[in-house]
Amino acid sequence: MMDGPRVETGRAFELVRQRIITLALAPGSAVNDQRLATELELPLAPVQEALKLLAHEHLVRIHPRYGAYVADVNASDLGQLSELRVELEGLAAALAARRATRDDLEVLDAIGQEQISADDPDPRRLFDRDHRFHVAVAAAARNDYLAQSLERFFGQSLRLWYLVLPQLDFLAGAVHKHVDLTGAIRAGDAEAAEEIMREHVRDFYGQVRALLGARDDTGPPRSDRRGKGSGDR
Amino acid sequence: MTEPHGPAPVAADPVEVGSAYERIREGIIGLSIPPGAPIKIDRLARELGLSAAAVSEALALLAHERLVVITPLHEHGIYVPHINLEELDELSEMRLRLEGLSARLAAERAGPDDLAVMEALLAEQRAAGADESRRTLEVDKRLHQAVAAAARNRYLAEELDRLFALSQRMWNAALPRLGAADALSAAARSHAGLVEAIRARDGDAAGRIMREHVALFHAQVRGEFSARVTIHYGRDAPSVGVEGGSLLGGAIIAAGLPLEQPCAGRGTCLKCKVLAEGALSPLDEHEQAGLTPAERAASYRLACRARVAGDVAVTLAPIVVYSNKVFGGAGGRLRPDVPLGLAVDLGTTTVAAFVAPLDRGAVVAGAAALNQQMAFGADIISRLDAALSSREQAARLSTLAITSIVQAMDALKLTRPQWKRIRRVTIVGNCAMHHLLLRLPVETLAELPFQPHSRETVRISADTPDDPLSGLFPSGAEVVLAPLVGGFVGSDALACLLYYDFDRAEAPIAAIDLGTNGEVLVTDGRRVVAGSTAAGPAFEGLNISCGTRAVDGAIVAAAAALGGQVQLTTIGNQPPVGLTGSGLLSLVCELRHAGVIEASGRLARDHPIFGHRIGTDASGVRRFLITDQGVDRRGLDEDEEASRVPLYLTQHDIRELQKAKAAIRATFDTLLDRLGLHPTDLKRMILTGSFGSQVDTCAILGLGMIPPMPREVIETSANGAGLGAALMLDDEQLRRAERISTLTEQIDLDLDPGFDRRFVGSMALAPDGG
């Protein structure tokens, strides 16, 4: 019987990805698939497959001889990610303003409320709520491909943010942006929703960039033809 | 789950994986591996001359990109997703933005090399012949890639490439019919303008031209997928675009919905029967032969044979026909030439049909099927909610009620001449089923004070045009819907009152109709009172972890032996598939007596005799092993051997039963109280329902579903409602039923101050648990 691709791979993918973007698996560190499988209580095979998928997404590097490594956090990617996310998050906000249902709005309100009333100094929780808000906007946009891409880029950006977490003083202001955004979505004002979201995402990157001390990276990097199928970086 | 210590996968050579990935991806996008095609790893590996391990890894990557769908093997295995219009729209929405961004950034950042590449591609595009649409599309792709490369954003380029590949597959499918020359030359013209704007460093113009280009091409492709199939499945209604002429079954699977096709489209197994209306091919010979007249009238089609020509609406709902060993009826023969009547008990979970000669009124055969409205939820409230949500959903629920009647009727297996002799049909059901069937407004059934919109007898000619019921029954037949008693006591309860002669009782009698709703009926010989309580579907074998309907192999009784064995009685003496309501009652009662279940309903932690059968599931819920020799036939053909699986009774199952029995007991006690009766005053205590005669009176008494009373007064009687409906085939009996409906008092349990207290007090599994 052929050992085909398996369904648990998806679960392994999510779990390992979570560890990478929260820096529980540190950038640059070697990944011991055996130990990871034990910790996640999953068979080895799906964990190995998941690592290959993560390499496809540039979160893991697989060295043919030395095994898998968590990809380095690369501050120079910040500009490129920011350009892309401003556009996609903006699109999600505009679509959400056109398509959000009453249930969607309830979810957005609930998360917004939670953000306002939360008296929680743990920045990771703050991040978690911020993330959930963005996921809820994406869900209200009713576009699966968009939601999936946003999640992917959110994950990639998250690693950069986690690096600067202790110093980041962004989230308090972000909460009010979220409330404004929910208002625009409720009013069905796609233009306003998009503008608020774009500004919100831009601000975020601006702060992260300042903290990382990264220079302006939006300028032309070296031309970079991509290969496919292997986790080249 | 895979075995935790299974063989370690053979690591595939990365170069081979890369090659497999590229070639399979190309095949999928270029449609040489067409939408819907199943993928077999071994075969594909042989064709590509690569190792199976490499193909397997490549497929995992492609699945991640959504170019391949991987499901557990017992479902569809691995296949290429179908063309789905909604997805094409979603992709276009994203491409519109990102291609626009890409063009804008390219205008800011393109160098001389970038522009040279773009110029070369424009020249190549002009050179391509009008008939070379695939080549033109390929050049188009490289031009988009060149623009993305000039935008100097690796993430953006990669994302666009992904979106392009996903879209390209759908474009290729549309190309043969797309006025390729027109569409692509328009594309080529806009490309020239785009490169011009990039050269001029005019970001706004470049972005605008690109967006227009993407939008125009999308609109042209979109127009090609003219056939659109919307599949209603409970409250979901996904919609997929397909090419005209494709099979209906493919569209259903494309929407990600289950469809059984064990005969692989030969039109012989009849498992892919679906309700479909709209632009479809005419019935082919397999459908003519396989579908009964009533099924055809109800718009059933075989998904493996019907082809889509335009807009089509499909309604998916489970079809389950019950074992005729349960509903076989009294037996007896249908004499020729006698006109026949059909009695239907439209239950929330079970729809039963009975046939009786009109000259004698005695039922000779019965059959039953699952109510297909189950797709909307097991309980009445969720059905009413769905009907209230929109007119279309209400119409759909009515259709499903009708098709369930059709399934039950067809299970009677009447011959064509017998079918034609049907002159009269009586339908009974609870108020919700009655209103949903007739498409009456249900607002008043869902709100206090729970009044029916109309409770009078309804008579419909089977030939009435435009009536939902028209065409289902032989021409000339009369269809009668019996009157309702009140807002929650329906004509099914009325049929029981009639069948058990409540209007003629001179001494106190009571009846309980056990179903998803428990109807409790009591008379003291003068007043007749009726109450209804939501027992949940536990008595019909649903919401129970290993619950089953009355199909072959269903457990109907259990006995716990001193040696630690559990002896099971199943329908047809077949290997056990699960518990019916009566099996559940019987098992719980046995285990209660044995001390495995405590009076509180708790499963004991350990037991001297049955301890080895007690354990917990993965989430820590305690459970009792009924047998390790159960079978799971789901998804198997009739001749396929099923593997043996364990069947368990869980703590949750016991709780479901407790709630159901407490609801019945509390209702019963409340009604007795209203009439000032004591349980021992009753001269007859009738237990009926779809499992009627099989129900174990010891269990009913032992678990306290009814208060202690002498065993002699208890009688079990199958299908009282259906048999009462059969009586109403006669006009005189129908008039009698109408009289009973006006004299019966409906007791509103919501307004009874003692009901909640009684309910809580009735939870214990003990004879006096009330």
3D architecture notes:
The complex is a heterodimer of chains A (233) and B (770). Chain A is mainly alpha-helical and 233 residues long. Chain A has 2 domains: 8-70, Winged helix-like DNA-binding domain superfamily/Winged helix DNA-binding domain (Arc Repressor Mutant, subunit A), CATH 1.10.10; 77-212, Four Helix Bundle (Hemerythrin (Met), subunit A), CATH 1.20.120. Chain A has helices spanning 8-21, 33-40, 44-56, 78-99, 102-117, 123-140, 144-164, 171-186, 190-212; strands at 30-31, 60-63, 67-70. A 3-stranded antiparallel sheet of chain A has the order 1-3-2. Chain B is α/β, with parallel strands linked by helices. Chain B has 5 domains: 14-79, Orthogonal Bundle (Arc Repressor Mutant, subunit A); 85-224, Four Helix Bundle (Hemerythrin (Met), subunit A) (Up-down Bundle); 227-316, Ubiquitin-like (UB roll) (Roll); 324-491, Nucleotidyltransferase, domain 5; 501-538 and 658-761, Nucleotidyltransferase, domain 5 (2-Layer Sandwich). In chain B, the strands form 6 sheets. Chain B has a 6-stranded mixed sheet with strand order 10-9-8-11-13-12. A 6-stranded mixed sheet of chain B has the order 24-23-14-15-16-25, with helices on both faces. Chain B has a 5-stranded mixed sheet with strand order 4-3-7-5-6. In chain B, strand 17 (554-560) and strand 18 form a beta hairpin. In chain B, helix 4 (85-109) crosses helix 7, helix 4 (85-109) packs parallel to helix 8 (180-199) and helix 5 runs antiparallel to helix 8 (180-199). Chain B is elongated and about 105 Å long. At the A-B interface, helix 1, helix 3, helix 4 and helix 7 of A face helix 1, helix 3, helix 4 and helix 7 of B.
Amino-to-carboxy terminus distance of chain A: 35 Å
H/E order of the elements of chain A?
HEHHEEHHHHHH
- How many strand elements of chain B? 25
- Helix percent of chain A reads 55-70%
Structural domain count of chain A = 2
Helix content of chain B: 40-55%
Instruction: Describe the sheet with the most strands of chain A.
Output: 3 strands, antiparallel
Rounded to the nearest angstrom, the distance between the terminal CA atoms of chain B is 45 Å
Q: If helices are DSSP runs of H or I spanning 4 or more residues, what is the number of helices of chain A?
A: 9
**Silhouette of chain B:** elongated
